[in-house]
């Protein structure tokens, strides 16, 4: 079940200073702020081939899940290895109102536990932002592969 996420003031934590766990959220009820944010990601990453409408449709069909917090959102989906059948939870998209808040570190345990609970073997994310490399490595992630492309 998904719910409408109520958003408070930007960059506000609860009274204990702890960021709340992400909530599975209905994309339809949050399209007014999520779709422009997805478009912002797409504009900054022209190599991505999907549209904000594709993300919307994936969430609506439950092929992907929108997770929101007071700081932004993540969209997750699953992938199956063709040869082993092992499932990987993919953090497909991530967006924050304000960068540099260590949201990966703050929510990593939540998504790792969710992936385990849902039967995934791995959790994965992808980025074309070279500055994120060291940050992710410091958070316990490893580099699995690097993809290079060239137009022909």
Helix content: 25-40%
What is the name of the CATH topology?
A: Aminopeptidase
Indicate the proportion of strand residues.
15-25%
For this entry, what is the oligomeric state of its chains?
single chain
Q: What's the pLDDT, averaged over the residues?
A: 88
Which CATH architecture? 3-Layer(aba) Sandwich
For the biggest sheet, the summary is: 5 strands, mixed
User: What is the rounded Rg?
Assistant: 16 Å
Number of distinct beta strands? 5
Q: Which stretches are low in confidence, meaning pLDDT under 50 for 5 or more residues running?
A: 1-16
Give the overall silhouette: globular
How many domains, as an integer?
1
Distance between the amino and carboxyl termini: 45 Å
Strand order of the largest sheet: 1-2-3-4-5
For the record, what is the CATH homologous superfamily label?
A: Gcn5-related N-acetyltransferase (GNAT)
CATH class: Alpha Beta
What does this structure look like?
- The chain has 152 residues and is of the alpha+beta class.
- It has one domain (23-138): Aminopeptidase (3-Layer(aba) Sandwich), CATH 3.40.630.
- The chain is 30% helix and 21% strand.
- It contains 4 helices and 5 strands.
- It has a 5-stranded mixed sheet, sandwiched between helices.
